[in-house]
Amino acid sequence: MEGKLLKEAAAIIAEAKNLVAFSGAGVSAESGIPTFRDPGGIWDRFSPDDFGTGGLSMLTGLSQRGSEFLKEMLTSFGKAEPNPGHIALAELERMGILRSVITQNVDNLSIEAGNTRVIEVHGNFYRFRCLVCGGKFKLAKEDFLSLLERIADAPEGEDLSGLIPRCRCGGVTRIDVVGFGEPVEDFAQAEAEARSCDVMLALGTSGVVTPAAFIPRFAKRAGARVIEINPTGCYFPEIVDLYIGEKTGVALPMIVEVVRRIRGTA
Ligand code: OAD
User: pTM for the whole thing?
Assistant: First the structure.
């Protein structure tokens, strides 16, 4: 990575009054979770028509392929821990610079890293949503993963819906992950964050799934500067002020180091 770009990014971030990050699957790639659209990514191997429709709706009579999908999720999510990119974002919040993270990721890793204002527009894999009262509750990660394991190992065709926990109100629940064609979550809050920030980081996202992909555009339209970090290309060329072609797990910790020096908090 060019030192000049890194210093420029750090200078912009160090003087930001309201920094907001918008993240995608690339931020979790270095935690071992495959992205969706890179070669070999999730949508390269599993059809989004079958598996992108939300809430693991295929749980009744799980097919062989459904079981493979769940096992993939178990393997990657089960082992995943926050990587240096997530940790750098949490550090920026602790330094009083980063106001919030708007994420398309459902992996909980920004929260685990220590960010406290995380807007999860595509939901959270470990949370259930009641289809009757709308209430939400999270399972402990281990409990959720062992539930998935039981489901993935069940014989083909077995009705698995009874395994999904019920809500306190007795209602049927589903995993609180947004599928294609379903409304995104907390979008008004995400939009308000974007429209009121002065610097936005667009991190590890191909920016093709709307409405989430509008987030950095809202920020730009409201006058914010946009810094994009993505090793495979610039996906927001029309709005980006500074593009860094590097992995977020590499670039963000380096940028944070420079920000610390600029602010004299080393
Ligand atoms: P994509 O898979 O579309 O894009 C991930 C981006 O991250 C790509 O541009 C990669 O080049 C980049 N990338 C890969 N490794 C990286 C690294 N180490 N550091 C930084 N960037 C890296 O994923 P998203 O843009 O997040 O929706 O996809 C958006 C939505 O599409 C997802 O939230 C999901 C999916 O369908 C739902 O599940 C509703």
Answer: 0.93
